Input
Amino acid sequence: MTFRIDQTFIEQANVAEISALDQDHEALARQLRRRGIALEPVLAALAEFHVALPSWGVGTGGTRFARFPMQGEPRGIFEKLDDCATVQQIARATPTISLHFPWDNVDDPAALKTYAHKLGLGFDAVNSNTFQDQPGAAQSYRFGSLTHTDAAVREQAIAHNIACIKLGAALGSKALTVWIGDGSNFAGQANLTTSFERYLESMKAIYAALPADWQVFIEHKLYEPAFYSTVIADWGSSLAAAVELGPKAKCLVDLGHHAPTVNIEQIVARLVHLRKLAGFHFNDSRYGDDDLDSGSVDPFRLFLVFNELVDAKARGAAEFAPAYMIDQSHNVTDPVESLITSAIEIQRAYAQALLVDRAALAEAQTRNDALGAHHILKAAFNTDVSPLLAEVRRQAGGAIAPLKTYRASCYRAHKARERPASGIASAGIV
Ligand SMILES: [Mn+2]
Output
């Protein structure tokens, strides 16, 4: 028997929190009314906001040095779905999952789709993996995949991506995310021009296999595992590839895949303007691709990204429908707790961005009132929107106090009994 948190358990937990929430919500509503901000459109936008969970995020991640598995980790894709459903049940902002092949071993897509729908879950973009060798594979990705000098390796990598599209289509996904680790560790090791040309040639073969209503998301990353050069290192390379491939190719922004001081929100603005913003892999970082929980290091940066997105929506930007996904590695936390927390922090940044007085901001910008404009942004960022988020969760059947409620359910302890360690739980960092 699989343990699930009973919905009445959440409702009962909410009873203890509702009075305080009502008071806090009313106080915030009064404050927002005073500031001339209508509450209903903000609540409606928040209720519609969804961010996809990474299937690899429900297992304990690791570093280059070690992985410390926790008790009760999911041992296969069905158990991963169970954990994702629990995140969704508590936080109510994550009704879809992004799968990663072949980390997710899917023998029977129809059965998996049925199981997911029973849990109220759907499938977001699927991810291919040509950055590690699989048992029995004829070719090795040691020196690259889609850009490898050997055509046989490139063909194997192309075939895997096309297999991912087919599997994703059977599950109801509409996009393929391609991240490759291809690059070089030594100056002179690879030809910087011809490796990019081989990338384009390989991607054209994958692009040709996309169903009519599909997109391919190109994910760039500055460095790692290659430390001298990476073929798709930045948004410029990603954009060049997306433009050459065609309208179904767009650029995915993983927040951790940039140099520490890069202005990511400006990259977002450029991609919106160019109609090439695919969406996001949300996470946070202090140094590099740390894959820490969203909003745990620099919530202001997350807010500034959402400020660009809300601005784009308000301006009616063309072909603007970004896909939101979490991409994190949980090394020292219960992954379910981290995913609940991150989903809410991402939603928080969105809520704060919705509170920006855009007319006043535009006016301040026109008048070149630097500090006045900054104060308008900070007024939104400094607003504690917690009661709004809790109210939206409550209305959708989620927990007013997410972490407290999840812990009180003893979900992990139940799973530790149900799922004896198999030692094969997969998780990853991309
Ligand atoms: Mn990523």
